[in-house]
Amino acid sequence: MKATFSTILLSSLGSTVLWLLLVPNFQAQTHSDGLVGLLGMERQVLGVVGALLVGVWADRGRIGRKFALLQGMQLALAVVFLLLTWLGTAGPDFVLVWTALRFTLVGASSVLAYRLLADAAGSSAQGAVLQMVTSPQGAMVFAAVICAAVPAWTAHTLLTALVFDIVSSLLVIWLLLARPEVGEGEFGFEWRHVLRRGAAAVRSYWLPELWPWNLLQLAFLVSLSGMMVYASAIAEAQTLVPTGIAFSGGWFFYGLAFWLTAPLLRDPERARRWALAFAGVLLVCGVVGTVIGRSAFPVHMALYVALTFVNAYWIHFTNARILEPAPAAHLGQIRASMIFYLGLVFGIGEQVVGLLLELKTGLLLLGLAHVVGGIALAGALLTIRARTRRRALVPVA
Questions:
Q1: 307 vs 19, 190, 206, 286, CA distance in Å?
Q2: b/e for 215-250, b at 16 or more Cβ within 10 A?
Q3: How do residues 360-389 score in pLDDT, each as one tens digit?
Q4: Residue 249: partners with Cβ closer than 8 Å, 6 or more residues away
Q5: What distance in Å separates the CA atoms of residue 212 and residue 238, rounded to the nearest whole number?
Q6: Which of 9, 312, 324, 361 is the most buried (most CB within 10 A)?
């Protein structure tokens, strides 16, 4: 279990360090919040495509070897980016194309990582919590510290990130291939059936066993979209610390939130109360965001930190509620479907919020969205709890 946990975390760390140093570099190249939002949307949406491609594949065994294959493909892409960056030919167009390819593989790897952790933990719900802690989101807590230190050490931040990514990929491949594979299964991908398999994964999100938590998760995702662009806008506008360090620091709290909120899900009843409390925090953050000015950057920084904890807890909470009753034979497909809807909503949200923040009233509208989201989540939780209690009081004939 520890070996699996560490290997997946190392894999996520490489891609996350690269992403956190790539975004400020891309911002400096383009000077456009809209293009940064496009980059974020691309990362989210193409990650979804990768997850759907391997949903059924992940349910057919030999997960460790499949994970190693995807890691090798990511290694090849990092080498190409390093060479073109060193030659000075990696412009914005190349970055957009490369991000699409790379995060397609990252999305695919996340589904395989979940299956590895669920099998090792012996619990589909616990595997979901562990997968988010070791995912690129959870790896932010370590990657942000590394990325904050790199600009103080060298001006060649992107080159350093690419080298770090290559080294971590090599280590992950070695760790995966050095240990024997447990169990058997099919290794072939069967490209002829890829569209049908992707469609099956998308439909699996609506299995009757997952109701009503699947719908509640969608409401939560809509209410907390655009976190990356929000962090980027704050980092660009504030003058307390350099932009690159501020952006990386913001993602430190994002990753830390996944680690600190994970233990809150140990008791199901307390987990529900915590979810209600975090819905209240979202509401309060929205109210504060609507009344403060655009230039109150210290307050916006505090709001961002609070929202990262709301985001992390609700991802943990809804993932566990959805995957706990999920059929074991479809875990990979259901996890792929969850990544599909998360990436689709968050990806479009990055673009929408990026365009909103170019307006004078953008932060006001973002605050109103958080207010509506907090009310909706709290109301849904209270409704579900009331219906559950009524069913428990009905006498058995």
A1: 21, 42, 28, 10
A2: ebbbbbbbbbbbbbbbbbbbbbebeeeebbbbbbbb
A3: 777 788 888 889 889 999 998 888 887 776
A4: 144, 148, 241
A5: 41
A6: 312
Reduced to 3 states, what is the DSSP secondary structure of residue 245? helix
pLDDT, tens only, 241-291: 777 667 767 777 888 888 899 999 888 888 999 999 999 999 999 899 888
CB 145 within 8 A of CB 40: no
Check: CB of residue 311 under 8 Å from CB of residue 132.
no
260 three-state secondary structure: helix
* CA pair distance 315, 50, nearest whole angstrom: 20
Q: State how far the Cα of 305 lies from the Cα of 396, in Å rounded to an integer.
A: 48
User: How do residues 309-352 score in pLDDT, each as one tens digit?
Assistant: 998 899 899 988 888 888 877 888 888 888 888 877 877 887 78
Q: Are 5 and 119 in contact (CB under 8 A)?
A: no
| Cα atoms in the 13 Å half-sphere on the side-chain side of 183 | 13
* Cβ proximity of 347 and 42 under 8 Å: yes
User: What mean pLDDT do residues 21-39 have?
Assistant: 77
Provide the pLDDT for residue 392.
57
Structure tokens at 332: 């990979």
d(CA 227, CA 63): 32
Say which amino acid occupies 115: R
Q: Give how far Cα 10 sits from Cα of 142, 167, 171, 176, Å.
A: 10, 10, 8, 12
Q: How many CB atoms lie within 10 A of CB 28?
A: 10
End-to-end CA distance of the chain: 45
Residue recorded with tokens 């569209």: 195
What sign for the dihedral angle of Cα 66, 70, 73, 78? negative
pLDDT higher than threshold 80 for residue 76: yes
Residue 204's identity, in one-letter code, is S
Confidence of residue 183 (pLDDT cuts 50, 70, 90): low
Q: Phi-psi bin for 97: left (phi > 0), alpha (psi -120 to 50), beta?
A: alpha
Cβ(248)–Cβ(147) below 8 Å: yes
Which of 113-117, 218-222, 248-252 is predicted least confidently? Answer: 248-252
Name the one residue in this structure whose structure tokens are 């070897």. Answer: 65
- Token pair, residue 147, equals 């990325």
Residue 285, number of CB atoms within 10 A of its CB: 23
Rounded CA separation 37/9 (Å): 26
